[in-house]
Amino acid sequence: MRIFVLLHVLSMFAAVAVTGGGDLLFYRIARTRDAAAIRGAGAAFARLARLIPVLFGLGAVFGIIAIFVHGFDPFATWLVLAYVLFVIGLLLGNFVNGAWAGRVTAAADEPDPALELAVTDRRGLIGIVLFWLLIAALLFLMVAKPFS
User: Fold this and answer.
1) Is 101 in contact with 48 (CB distance < 8 Å)?
2) Distance from the CA of 52 to the CA of which of 10, 85, 93, 140 falls in 20 to 30 A?
């Protein structure tokens, strides 16, 4: 049994569930424009977000261990593409999705026009769509292993 592949998959699935599920739920709450709900969700997701680097970090470590323990070529095209998408995903999460959620949460303490501007900022929706497209591409690479 490829135990490190299993641990890699489990930790990455957990990371995606926390990240992607949290993003989608916060987006839906933000769209209500209910400032109290947004503040509460923002605080809850800020605490939950502490798990994100831990889960993705564990997934990366288990993935690297799996490469060497289970005999994968670390420079296989499908793996190199996965490394690139992983880094893009980290950047997307920090600089687009997380930043948007932070702006919306902060705007929930301000007058209505500020909240409306933050909620309707398209970067929130674009970030979520890009995240899920990136996850689909990573799943394709991990399952189909193209170019190998």
Assistant:
1) no
2) 140
Chain centre distance of CA 131? 6
pLDDT tens-digit profile of 33-83?
Answer: 999 999 999 999 999 999 999 999 999 999 999 999 999 999 999 999 999
pLDDT at residue 111 greater than cutoff 80: no
Q: Report the C-alpha gap between 58 and 54 in whole angstroms.
A: 6
Alpha-carbon Rg for the chain, nearest whole angstrom, is 17
DSSP-derived 3-state class of residue 134:
helix
Answer left, alpha or beta for residue 2, where phi above 0 means left and psi between -120 and 50 means alpha: beta
Please report where in the chains the tokens 């929130």 appear, as a residue: 124
